Amino acid sequence: MIIDAAELDAAHAYKLLIGSIIPRAVAWVSTVSREGVANLAPISFFTAVGRKPPMVSITLQPREDGVTMKDTFVNIRDTGEFVTNLATLPQAEAMHGSAFSFGPEVDEFEELGLQKEPSEVVRAPRVREAPISFECVVDRIIPVGDDGVDHVVWGRVVRFHVRDDLYLERGRIDTAALPAVGRLAAEYTLVDNVFTTPLDKELVTARHGRRMRRLDARPDHWSPIDTGEWSPSGATTSGPGR
Question: What is the tens place of the pLDDT at every residue in 77-126?
Fold first, then answer.
């Protein structure tokens, strides 16, 4: 299948991107509005972009109407600050819940039953349950796309918060102790295996063609994309508080 990108609208291009770039790390982004209302949102267009100073990037799409900016973007633009929190399996349900569209007056920590932890430098709180968090200040905001409604945010990490048991000698993170949750297309994946190459050829052959093992008992080919729960804004369309 060869697909001409010029013939795609934003929704179809988005489906191809999120189904092909897998797994994606999830930045569980906490922000606070000018009025002091805390917000949370999972952002899977997320990566590291620099080392000195350490920098990360997140890309934010508008709401389902394709025009209105999400609270996360508005808060980052207005305050110049945000926090990325690492979500692990125990926080997966709350993380998913934070993808629903709440009004800007709703404190999503309170709505989702999550505890806030004060940050040291930025106003936005951290998720207390998150094993790793980065406090970030905005370095730049870059409009992208033909209509300029998507935005890439570069954030300079000013504080790393790492749970003590995960911080090993020489500054290494004990990654194998983290049941990290990544993003596939509109679903999640649990990081629960580790390897280096080369692998035994019999092992590779035995896994050839094998489908991922589902943890939720859904049918093999089920996807939220085929339901009314999904929207090309990256948000879900119904849920807590709706």
Answer: 999 999 999 999 999 999 999 999 899 999 999 999 999 999 999 999 99
Residue 98's closest CA among 89, 108, 107?
108
H-run or E-run covering 130:
none
Return the number of other C-beta atoms located less than 10 Å from residue 220's C-beta: 7
Please report, as a single letter, which amino acid is at residue 107: D
Tokens of 151: 């935005």
Q: 2, 181, 23: which is closest to 95 by C-alpha?
A: 181
pLDDT, position 73: 97
Distances, alpha carbon 200 to alpha carbons 203, 205, 213, 237, in Å: 5, 9, 21, 44
- Residues 65 and 116: beta-carbon distance below 8 Å: no
Task: For each of the domains in the chain, give its residue range(s) and CATH number, in order of start.
Answer: 5-226 (2.30.110.10)
Q: How far apart are CA 193 and CA 113, in angstroms?
A: 30
Which among 214, 178, 175, 212 has a CA at the least distance from the CA of 196? 175
Only one residue has tokens 């797994």, namely 23
DSSP code of residue 204: H
| Two structure tokens written together for 233 | 């804004």
Return left, alpha or beta for 102; rule: phi > 0 is left, psi -120 to 50 is alpha, else beta: beta
pTM, full prediction: 0.94
User: What is the chain's length?
Assistant: 242
Helix and strand totals (H; E) in the chain? 5, 11
Q: Is the pLDDT of residue 232 over 90?
A: no
